[in-house]
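Query form — protein YebC/PmpR family DNA-binding transcriptional regulator

QUESTION: What is the three-dimensional structure of this chain?
INPUT:
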Amino acid sequence: MGRQWLHAKRAIVNNKKGQFVGKIVKELSVAAKLGGPDADANPRLFAAIEKARKASVTREVIERAVRKGAGIGDDKMVMDLIVFEGYAPHKVAVIVEAYTDNVQRTTPEVRVLFRKGVLGLAGSNKFLFEHVGIVEAAHADTGIDPEEAAIEAGANDFAPLSADENDDIPADHLGARFLTERTDTHAVSTWLTQNGWSVVTAEIGYVAKMFPDLTDVQREEVGEFLQALEDHDDVQRVWAAVR
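ANSWER: The structure tokens for YebC/PmpR family DNA-binding transcriptional regulator are given below.
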């Protein structure tokens, strides 16, 4: 999925909860700006609200961020979404989403980080990824058929998901990752919740179509590079073709 590198550094992420929550609030505002304040009609906003709730962001903060992004009230948001396409060390394709109120500041700073990855930014590498809805969920009944659930929920595909891949999946539960059309993220997540699944992730993202073979040392180098990107205040999401 290109996100597993984060799990190995979970302790670092946990120690930066304030930064993490700040990014979620920013994501709420940008999602509302791009697609409007109705979560039922805006799958990106729905996914952001779900993420905010799981991070214990209060309802008041969520609603204020959505209003700001949608331009409701006096507090208008001045924020842009920038997507960078490039490569980590060892030719690992990377897509970075950044939210910023100053494009002239963020763009050169992210370019500097990519130059440290040797290969730097590319003209376009989105063709190496699928842009989809991603729903990760767990079920207490380990005998349930996730393929049947995927069909019933309206997902396009599924894959098993273990606690090692997502530590929000209980070790004694059945875990699965469901891939959907971006506009179906809300519907699939809702169906799963209504049918006994605990949804731990619901977001719109990029899934790599192929992964380069890496040694353990190379994978560690890639992970360090991706973490440096993730640590930038304006970087919201990092997607990489690494298992």
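ADDITIONAL NOTE: The mean pLDDT is 86.
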